[in-house]
Amino acid sequence: MRVNLTVNGRPQQADDVWEGESLLYVLRERLGLPGSKNACEQGECGSCTVRLDGVPVCSCLVAAGQAEGREVVTVEGLADLAGRRAEGGELAPVQQAFIDAGAVQCGFCTPGLLVAADEMLERNPNPSDEDIREALSGNLCRCTGYEKIMDAVRLAAARQQEAV
Ligand code: FES
Ligand code: FES
After folding, report:
1. Is the CB of 138 under 6 A from ligand 1?
2. Residue span of the signal peptide, if any (predicted)?
């Protein structure tokens, strides 16, 4: 089966997709986008989180065929979303904030957290700690104990507020 979709603003086509193949597999193995990570493949860890028509989803649970004609944004595309590039840099503000707050250790969870955090900040520019916890509740991190991740999202939100 052939699947046509838009990924990070570019039309893409994947051929010979087998029935049951996941969107995560298509992104990583067919389209050369390894940023979304493959850990549990069961929807438990959030390391494969991407946006599908704007909504964060576990791409390991989305059949590639379900993405036909739809818009996908992966961690590789975050910096290119309109108005999101950090001042003078190559990274989206949320990516820069994760670095500045020391929220990245092994980094395996980081792409999924970035996609989820970025989506929340777009919807909710002034989140409470509860809002942040809720938005990131599907993303597991084995390294950081989450406090630095909370700091990073608070920092990204504060910088976003300053920029308004
Ligand atoms: S790999 Fe998709 S949720 Fe863990
Ligand atoms: S930084 Fe290692 S799993 Fe989160």
Report:
1. no
2. none
